[in-house]
Amino acid sequence: MSTRYDNNVTRGSTVELVIDGQQVSAYEGETIASILLLEDKTVCYRTRTNSPRMMFCNMGTCFECRVRVTQAGVSRWMLACNTTVQAQMEVDTGVALSQWIPGGNGDV
Amino acid sequence: MYDLAIIGAGPAGMAAAEAACEHGMRAVIIDQQEQAGGQILRRPPASFSVRAWLQQRVYRQLHQLYARFIKLDKLTHLHGTTVLGIGVEEHHFVLHINGPSGLEPLLASRVLVASGCFDMPLVFPGAQLPGVMATGGMQAFLKSQQIIPGKRFLFVGSHPLQLIVANQIAKAGGDVAGVFFSPSLSKYLAVLRSPLVLLRQLPNMLFFVGVLAQLLLRRVPVKFGTELVSANGDNALEDVVLKQDSSSTNMKPIACDRLGLCFGFLTNNDLVRQVGVVCSWSQNAGGWIADHDQGMRASVSGIYVAGETTGVAGASVACLEGRLAALSAACDSGKMEQPAYDTACGAVHAPLKGARAFAQLLAEASYPGDATIQRAMSDDAYLCKCEEVTVGSVRATLAQHPDVSDLNALKLLTRCGMGHCQGRYCHYQSRFLLATDRNLPVESMAGFTARFPIRPTSIGELIGDLRAEDME
Amino acid sequence: MTHYDAIIIGAGLTGAATAYHLAKGGASTLVLERQQINRGASGQNAGSLHFQLEHRLIEHAGELDEELSFYAALARLAIADWRALESELSDDIELEMTGGLMLAESPEQMQTLERKASIESAQGLQVTLLDRNEVLAKAPYLSDSICGALYCPDEGHCNPRLLSHAFAREAESAGTLFQMQTEVTGLQREADRWLVTTSSAGGSEKQTYTADVVVNAAGAWSAQIARMANLHLPVFPVGLIISVTEKVPAIMDHLIQHVGRKLSLKQVDDGNLIIGGGWSARLPQKNGAWQEDYRAILDIDELKKNLATARGVMPLIENLHVLRSWTGTTGITPDQLPIIGDIAQAQGFYVAVGGSGFTYGPTYAKLLAELILRGETSFPITAYSPNRFGHMNMFMG
Fold this sequence. Notes:
Helices cover 6% and strands 34% of the residues of chain A.
């Protein structure tokens, strides 16, 4: 379980989003990666052999933190570490991304 | 058309932008992140207010640079924008930038590439498990997002950065199971034997010693000569097995949910290689490093390089090189007279020499060593995590195909390097494996070809509004 | 000085497959390669098996009708060769012959397909004209802007990363020697044999070999090799673009082409989509001459057109990420037909280059080996003979 610092930090307003079907509250400016850690999610996506993967670099170079994000009815994968949470965003973790086609909203 | 396009808004890019503006250049700075500062100053979100953020002495000059940088009103800032490739025209460059408004060409007479570096991965069994992270990546969570990214942390590596991150976590209330260095203590102490270093870098040294003392006071074990054997767990990291250098038996598994790897850094050199800049290979300064002259001019006329692009050497070197590169660009474009240029460069060269000497000592001390890298690469480890290609399967392919003698050939046969990270996280160890197997010098081997786009990009983003029916 | 029955220059698909057939026929063979096996166009092309007549040929159909029907006959032979290949080679080559669709998006394009179908059917090539509904039933992943398609059940794809290696491995086990990192620097006819001089990478080691027969299988570099034997060979380098997307589930099992646009689109075993079709990359030049390594430069505008063409027929690819776009250099001939055979002015000098070198490569290699071993071929290839350009070598050789 990850935790927010409390000393010296004042966070702004909160944002409601949905992670794996659950309503989750985040602070404006937080990345999806942070929320996943705070929510104790231990997998971002799964590989073709169903192996779970999670963020490694946290700077947009390793591509291990891909998660499925649905906004306005369109699903695509995004890098959790480089994506700031937005209201009404739906994030799905543990999706076998190589078994799914971005753009639609369902699995094949 | 810009006089100078600066790629990367870290220390090198910010210093370059300042110098470019001083000399009246029409400059643009492009960075993938939403805020400038680079990884070292990875800032909290604008909506956060953090008191006493990064107040340690080592950050002081960077804060000052940042404060001056954000006031450069003649500079164009493009944040959240990635340069996917650079095209060379007769008298200018075309940068293919992908930002909030999609893929666009950006024209510039000169280009400075200061694209930084990323944490060096280690190939070992279990490296792909959720919970195994780059220590630099963990630090970014602390610095920017203000979270402690886990519960119980273990650090293994060869770079002293892990002391700082472990201490930050321990201070914030995280549980640190230990900080383990692969090299022996004597390797680090060797740095101290240089009087030049002791004299010039005393503040840096004292900073590290202070951090070490704080960790020990918090009863965090700090050990040397300890190697990584494996990370274990069913669906996420549960424990880590280490081994004392001198011993043939493994230590008792250490339970943790985060393993930080801190084996130094690799340069982000896809762009310079894609545009045809001559690079050399350096085992301990980040892999590919761009060749350059004294004024930071790369082998392609009009391309300049600074910071980690020229070898991992830290923020002090980056600032000085960035300034130097911009001065050269100003002089080459006639914005600065030769005598003024010579004087300005003179003021940079002296401190740069000292900073580079320290960086070189640090690089040598913090390089894990060929043997450590090699011992970790057991047959069941993934050489390429993206494509799930194991070390063993690559070795088998090499045995089957005696003609293979470069990395592109290896890639074509094994898919190693063909995934989403585009080979960034396997090129170093693949080169190592191939060189060892074929008994070839690691420095002279051709690498994976750097291709457009340097980050995976959707077809929709690449084509924008272009439709087949409009092309007739 | 070691003597061989044959020395093959170039270890691409043509070289490796010719070596395989020569070795099977009992000829002692040496393959000389400047780099490594499969590093040129053989390993960089999109791996399409397209037996329908290509876009570039259909465009000039009026003037080329005779050649077109000849091509269709050759296609039947190539189909049979490919069908036999998987059992012939011990390595997996990821061969899929699950059908190809050449799409039409306008009534005019449908007419072209009808004409094409009649030429191909007359030659015994199995093709079926499908209307819009039939196409979408077969390939629901395609856009509904499609008017129809010509379906060829034998089309498909094979992994170009693996094929040349598979031939090379068979050739090696039959005794062929592959000499890598070895550049040919001279070719000289002396009495009844060829003197082949080479230089190792870096130029440190020079060697001379002799052979009864020299096979020029240097692809885009064939003209330079011919020049060493004092011959003109009209082969011109062209740079092409190919892109690969990230992996997705198995969504398509056809090779997709377009009758009116440059396109090839397919999904490989690993799940990636490969997008190509003959869009140009720029060849570098200096002082008006091509740079000898022909390392083609990606042209972003051409790439965008290539991707937009693919998206036009298959909209769902819009959200797929391109992982890499690469360029490769292949050799084309003045009449777009391959050049296969021996050159009259230079006894024992054979060449095989050009003309859909991947789809037809295994067949060209087989026919060339027949010509070398027996002096005749099981399928007439005189139309492909280099001697159709014989006037170029009237004063050479």
